């Protein structure tokens, strides 16, 4: 099928207005929030209904063309980048809130609904959607599910996956499947779990049931200022070890503070080494006592100042500053590489020291803004990508932090997904058997490797060939490892 | 793999890049880190869901042209530079501090210059002869001479009051000519025009400040009554108000429309007029239209490459104050406000909320009026789709955004829609007319004025 024929069939499905085919316009879809690698799609469609998605996926399966789902394209790992071209399927027009069922604490929405708008809509009814990525003003629920996104409040409420009660999946052959009925209990396999965090490689999400929660009766926000990042990280461990469960524990270091201080009128003293945002919520009665106990821990660890956000507006300002910190990095350097790894919380102080050392070694500034409560760190390596030497040094820093995180018993992705950004690091964490098991699952859902191909698995690994080798290996004594040993190299490469 | 796809070969294109003065600066373009946080604030993205219709997409297109990967002649590029409302909502939310207004205006200037110089055989389509003539008249003559502008306004007014308008409407001539929408846009002109001739209006009570008012173009003819209200409100607040002569249009239409040189000429005229009007003795230069205010405040950037004028512009800009900003800053005289029991919703002009970041003060003033109940509408800071000549260049988007705005406004059940910009006021009036709804649209200063005077205008009664 020629490009022209494909475009004309797609036009029948989504109409002229639902289609983008001009090469200059397609160029704007060649990356998400991560521009380290770009690739233009062959065509973009903007369906409004599940039926249209089904028709597009069926056509793609018939013609063997990749389909890449895309929400707002705020992903930070290249998840929505069409690495092999094909059809980018954008959900921005599937933005309807379909049903609010407060009595059962749930709602049903289309995937293109913007996270913040859902919460704003629910707020007037006294509810909220708890997963709140810092990009919530722009990112979509579909993207949140596909990346299993986290946010500042996930320490208490859990990441996106904890709030998904069922997903309408359009599978690779165009069939529709609901993974759950919108209630917490689900017999049999947890197929919702197969879409959560799968980065669009197992299905296209076209609708979902989400759990919603009542807005807490009261909220308190304070910011503890420290001379250095270490005592801030130590406070986090101590607070959790003390049995507290704050709604948020977020750390910003001196560079990050510099980026947001002026823009958001935070009024942080210029020499501050780090700030820890502490939020507690719940029943109003006793909340101040609880907060006082946590603040005492911060003071014991060396907080030089504790500033409460007194009014709701002040609370909004503190969060605006925190949530815009990544974007504000553009004020400090032309390019940044945001690392997203997780370590056990108690290792946070140690790895912060390592990051400082690495920054010196590669001679590049590294800022830190992170969900400390979850042990999810975000060192942000600042550099100028037009300088090849800086590029190489930045890459070295990133790799080093990845290795260290794994060394501390952590993982290489906290919440931003693997995409293309971290695909090469997968083999640091997973051996052939692990990757083989993932490939087998992937193959069951995407046997032709057409759903967002070229992601998650290391670039050289074709997941379907890996799955086939793994099957074959079941008949060989010693399994996959023996095959690898015998051939001297991975046969699926 | 997409091996099955044989993309149609792209026709060979001659790449025309940015050139000469007024190129969007690469350093400004590169402050965009492609995070996408601005997407949901952009009215055109909200309406279309298209990446190239978003701020990030548009900056990406500018970057491609700037780096020589895309042609200035690209239809997508030119289309997007025109589709953008220049509402600057993206600028206000961008964490990286991208100066979007500056780069989109420079891009438009590049396109406009290229069109004017196009030969007809090259890749850039020259502008049509009629467009050229209209641009030359409107940008080059009409807005440059206030005398001519007032003359033109007077003709329009005659058209309205003589009954010719009635005739034209009822005979359907306008529909036939495809201009009915535009005709709806025609403001109802004030009965007298505000002509700055060096008048001085004394302060009431103790004199606290000496300020100049810049009446502008459209505001001084179609909305002269708003100036009268502004002057009275300023007087009530202890301000002596002067109207220095020889000033004119602020140049907003020019700078937004890609005629930066035209804008510069007007900027210089105004700076000279105010200097001669005693700039040094002034505490502030007051402007009551959001779009003009943001343009005046940006004279420094407009003239930044002109060493002879840059400092003078700086001194001028330092005194420019939006009227709401000013009143809130000096402390509103609340003692003389009389009750105005009316339910009001506020439509935020983009050039107040986004370009000047003035959001709290207008609400503060409204809330200061006893008896007035302010009810917030949904998406109050989303552009109403007016944006200068946008209704003419992008009628479809302008009208869908207008309808969206009016629905949000009416949903509040407000009896009055308050705003602070002529474009918004006209757009709201048109949409109300289309819907057959009779809700008055008023400037905040008009409401303040009525509260001070203790009279309720006919439309509010
Ligand atoms: C400034 C900034 C701050 C951020 N902060 C956070 C944060 O605090 N926490 C966090 O977790 N992330 C954060 N992110 C990353 C990003 O915003 C999230 O991953 C978000 O969930 C992506 O949503 P999106 O709609 O933009 O998805 P996209 O970027 O469009 O897509 C992301 C992935 O989801 C897939 N996908 C999208 N829609 C569907 C669908 N309907 N069906 C199947 N697959 C689909 C895509 O193929 C892709 O693999 C941040 C990003 C930025 C730029
Ligand atoms: S303009 Fe600002 S908010 Fe928008 S993508 Fe660029 S950096 Fe992000
Ligand atoms: S100025 Fe307004 S319309 Fe233009 S890109 Fe920015 S937000 Fe969108």
Q: How many strands, which pairing sense, and closed or not: the largest β-sheet of chain A?
A: 7 strands, antiparallel
Would you count the extended β strands of chain A for me? 20
- The proportion of residues forming helix of chain B, as a percent range, comes to 40-55%
| Fourth-tier CATH superfamily name of the largest domain in chain A | FAD-linked oxidases, C-terminal domain
Q: Distance N terminus to C terminus of chain B? A: 69 Å
Percentage of residues in DSSP E strands of chain A: 15-25%
Class per helix and strand makeup of chain A: alpha+beta
Q: Residue ranges of chain B: pLDDT <50 for 5 or more in a row?
A: 166-180
| Number of H/I helices of chain B | 25
Mean pLDDT of chain B: 85
What share of the residues of chain A lie within helices?
25-40%
* Estimated radius of gyration of chain B: 23 Å
Q: Kindly report the greatest chain-chain contact and the residue count on each side.
A: A-B, 55 and 41 residues
Trace the largest sheet of chain B across and list its strands.
1-3-2-4-5
CATH topology name of the largest domain in chain B = Rossmann fold
Helix count of chain A equals 18
Tell me the strand order in the biggest sheet of chain A. 15-12-14-13-18-20-16
């Amino acid at each position: 099928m020629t490009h022209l024929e494909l475009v004309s069939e797609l036009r029948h499905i989504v109409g002229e207005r639902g289609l983008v085919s001009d090469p200059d316009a397609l160029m704007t879809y060649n990356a998400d929030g991560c521009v380290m690698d770009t690739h233009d799609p062959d065509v973009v469609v903007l369906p409004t209904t599940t039926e249209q998605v089904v028709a597009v996926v069926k056509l793609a399966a018939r013609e063997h063309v990749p389909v890449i789902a895309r929400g707002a394209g705020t992903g930070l790992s290249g998840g929505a980048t069409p690495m092999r071209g094909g059809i980018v399927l954008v959900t921005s027009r599937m933005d309807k809130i379909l049903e609010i069922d407060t009595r059962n604490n749930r709602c049903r929405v289309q995937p293109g609904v913007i996270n913040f708008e859902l919460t704003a809509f629910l707020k007037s009814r006294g509810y909220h959607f708890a997963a709140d990525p810092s990009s919530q003003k722009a990112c979509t629920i579909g993207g949140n599910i596909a990346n299993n996104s986290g946010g500042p409040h996930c320490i208490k409420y859990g990441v996106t996956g904890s709030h998904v009660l069922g997903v309408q999946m359009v599978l690779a052959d165009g069939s529709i499947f609901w993974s759950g009925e919108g209630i917490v209990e689900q017999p049999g396999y947890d197929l919702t779990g197969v879409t959560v965090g799968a980065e669009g490689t197992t299905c296209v999400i076209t609708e979902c049931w989400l759990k919603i929660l009542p807005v807490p009766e009261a909220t308190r926000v304070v910011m503890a200022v420290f001379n250095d990042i270490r005592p801030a990280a130590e406070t986090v461990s101590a607070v959790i070890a003390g049995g507290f469960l704050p709604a948020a524990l977020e750390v910003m270091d001196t560079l990050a503070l510099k980026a947001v201080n002026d823009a958001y009128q935070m009024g942080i003293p210029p020499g501050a080494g780090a700030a820890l945002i502490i939020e507690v919520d719940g029943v109003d009665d006793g909340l101040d006592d609880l907060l006082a106990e946590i603040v005492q821990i911060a003071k014991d660890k060396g907080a030089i100042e504790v500033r409460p956000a007194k009014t709701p507006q002040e609370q909004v300002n503190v969060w605006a500053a925190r949530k815009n910190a990544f974007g504000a990095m553009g004020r400090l350097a032309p390019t940044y590489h945001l690392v997203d790894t997780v370590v056990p919380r108690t290792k946070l102080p140690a790895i912060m020291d390592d990051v400082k050392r690495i920054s010196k070694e590669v001679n590049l500034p590294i800022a830190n803004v992170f969900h400390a409560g979850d042990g999810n760190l975000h060192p942000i390596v600042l550099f100028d990508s037009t300088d090849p030497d800086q590029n190489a040094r930045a890459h070295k820093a990133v790799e080093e932090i990845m290795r260290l995180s794994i060394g501390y018993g952590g993982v290489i992705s906290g919440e931003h997904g693997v995409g293309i950004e971290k695909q090469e690091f997968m083999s640091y964490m997973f051996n052939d058997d692990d990757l083989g098991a993932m490939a087998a699952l992937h193959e069951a859902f995407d046997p032709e490797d057409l759903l967002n191909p070229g992601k998650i698995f290391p670039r050289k690994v074709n997941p379907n060939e890996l799955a086939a080798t793994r099957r074959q290996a079941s008949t060989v004594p010693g399994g996959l490892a023996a095959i690898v040993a015998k051939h001297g190299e991975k046969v699926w490469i | 793999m997409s091996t099955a796809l044989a993309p149609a070969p792209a026709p060979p294109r001659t790449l025309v890049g940015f050139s000469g003065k007024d190129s969007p600066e690469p350093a400004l373009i590169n402050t965009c880190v492609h995070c996408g946080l601005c997407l949901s604030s952009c009215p055109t993205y909200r309406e279309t869901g298209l990446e190239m219709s978003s701020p990030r997409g548009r900056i990406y297109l500018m970057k491609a042209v700037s780096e020589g990967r895309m042609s200035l002649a690209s239809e997508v590029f030119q289309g997007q530079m025109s589709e953008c409302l220049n509402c600057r909502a993206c600028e206000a939310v961008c964490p990286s501090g991208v100066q979007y207004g500056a780069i989109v205006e420079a891009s438009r200037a590049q396109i406009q210059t290229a069109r004017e110089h196009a030969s007809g055989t090259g890749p850039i389509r020259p502008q049509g002869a009629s467009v050229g003539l209209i641009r030359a008249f409107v940008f080059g003559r009409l807005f440059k001479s206030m005398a001519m502008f007032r003359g033109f306004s007077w003709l329009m007014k005659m058209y309205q009051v003589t009954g010719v308008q009635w005739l034209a409407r009822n005979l359907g001539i306008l529909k036939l000519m495809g201009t009915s929408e535009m005709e709806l846009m025609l403001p109802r002109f004030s009965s007298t025009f505000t002509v700055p001739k060096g008048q001085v209006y004394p302060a009431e009570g103790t004199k606290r400040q000496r300020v100049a008012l810049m009446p502008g173009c459209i505001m001084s003819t179609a909305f002269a009554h708003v100036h009268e209200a502004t002057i009275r409100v300023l007087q009530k607040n202890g301000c002596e108000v002067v109207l220095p002569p020889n000033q004119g249009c602020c140049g907003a239409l020019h700078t937004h429309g890609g005629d930066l040189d035209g804008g510069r000429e007007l900027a210089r005229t105004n700076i000279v007029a105010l200097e001669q009007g005693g700039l040094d003795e002034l505490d502030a230069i007051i402007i009551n239209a959001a779009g003009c205010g943001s343009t005046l405040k940006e004279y420094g950037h407009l003239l930044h490459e002109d060493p002879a004028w840059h400092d003078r512009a700086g001194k001028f800009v330092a005194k420019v104050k939006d009227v709401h900003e000013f009143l809130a800053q000096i402390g509103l005289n609340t003692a003389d406000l009389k009750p105005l029991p009316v339910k009001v919703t506020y439509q935020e002009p983009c050039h107040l909320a986004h370009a000047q970041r003035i959001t709290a003060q207008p609400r503060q003033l409204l809330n200061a009026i006893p008896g007035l109940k302010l009810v917030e509408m949904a998406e109050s800071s989303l552009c109403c789709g007016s944006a200068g000549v946008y209704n003419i260049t992008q009628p479809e988007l302008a009208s869908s955004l207008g309808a969206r705005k009016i629905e949000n406004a009416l949903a509040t059940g407000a009896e009055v829609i308050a705003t602070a910009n002529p474009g918004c006021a006209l757009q709201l009036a048109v949409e109300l007319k289309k819907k057959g709804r009779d809700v008055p649209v008023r400037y905040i200063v008009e409401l303040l004025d009525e509260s001070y005077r203790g009279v309720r205008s006919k439309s509010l009664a």
